[in-house]
Amino acid sequence: MQQKLNLYNTLTRKKEEFEPLHAPFVGMYVCGPTVYGEPHLGHARSAVTFDVLYRYLKYQGYKVRYVRNITDVGHLENDADEGEDKIQKKAKLEHLEPMEVVNHYTNIYHQEMDKLNVRQPDIEPRASGHIMEQVQMIQEILDNGFAYEVNGSVYFDVQTYNKQHKYGKLSGRIIDDLLNNTRTLDGQEEKRSPLDFALWKKASPTHIMRWPSPWSEGFPGWHLECSAMSRKYLGTTFDIHGGGLDLMFPHHECEIAQSQASCNHTDAAKYWVHNNMITVNGQKMGKSLGNFINLSELFSGNHEMLEQAYTPMTIRFFILQAHYRSTLDFSNEALQAARKGYTKLMNGMRVLKKLKYTEEAVENAPDTKLNEELQKLTQDCFRGLNDDLNTAKTIASLFNLLKKINSLYLGQIKMEELSRGTFDLMRDTYQELVGDVLGLKEETVGNMQDVLDLVLTFYKEAKEQKAYDKVDAIRVELKRQGIVIKDMKTGIDWAYEE
Known about the structure:
The protein has helices at 41-59, 86-94, 98-115, 131-143, 158-164, 175-180, 222-234, 248-261, 295-300, 312-320, 332-354, 368-386, 391-409, 420-437, 448-464, 468-480, and strands at 6-9, 14-17, 25-30, 63-68, 147-150, 153-156, 197-202, 218-220, 238-244, 269-275, 278-280, 283-284, 328-330, 483-488, 491-496.
């Protein structure tokens, strides 16, 4: 029986079997970056998590429309309704037009995601390109009595909304507790309640990024952007809305409220999926805390917290070795362990490329018990992914399968003991899950294979001539490059050092 994908739904607080609204079509929206600085490890975790979900849904045969936005306007400092736009602030500091900042950091984001082998979404809308849709949605919310206009700004009326709906249904917040723990800040006197949030802000005279609207020249609220863009490209109700756990409240909570209060009258998405945070010594990693590491610094090793540089695939494996809903604590030791785990999987990919199934005449039929064991190990590789996208479990299962692959390579298991179906299933599952679903690929420099083949030729000649000083010198130098030579009965080969 084919295993079914189950996902933890933050909205219902339980794992649910994934059933698309309109199978085989799947609509997935994920909150993308606010592009005012270089992407860091926290950005990478969300991108890699939902990249794997996207890949796995496609692997299962679904036709996925993946939308991930670019926030290029309206995201104010400290995620508040007052203060300066993060992009405009950066533009002033660097004496640039805001859209120069946007294009610069969007390009860097794409470059770093490409290094991590994160696939581009099918649609990547920008908030600044969808002002008309946002104005329309605000008008719907006003017409339905869940918003009010003051001095050219429009605010969502949380308490009025809460009388008919439940504000806090996603995050579990209780409105009375929020009121008791929220103080009124300077500049927010025009709000009826400190819980109310901006749908449209009238621009101050010095505000650069502004658009015309029925209420004022201004700009949209941060929360509204995703509601309007997800509705435009995925419809009033779609399958999956994803993002980091830090976005659950208030950003995603406000999205649900906006969708219910407009002419959608829905929770926007059926499944709300959130990845947990990267931590450093137990504290969340992020720009506002000043403890973040840019991806470019990770790849170059140029950061005081780093002992060395780490390759993009090491970072990807580091993210995948933990379940996406658990915290992932940064350390050099963890990254070095991730490098070893990644190289072990890559060695498996290399071995499988060399293994060829040959049906030879033998007295005995294939080993039934061995074939059943290998088929079970293969099926185990899917259990983790189907259990709420648990990549950590899947990687552990792949390592178990790899032990058998290595035994086959070393001759400890004979090829004729396997049926053709078992061998194909084992090979295809390993290669497809590692490469197509987990998105791990071999990192090479130049024509390394040609160079290594030549070095192994010299090594073989040195052994035959009993020039053991040369043999040792070659071994030592290759080991310095992270490569070990394997002397086997069947010949000489190489592997990444684990």
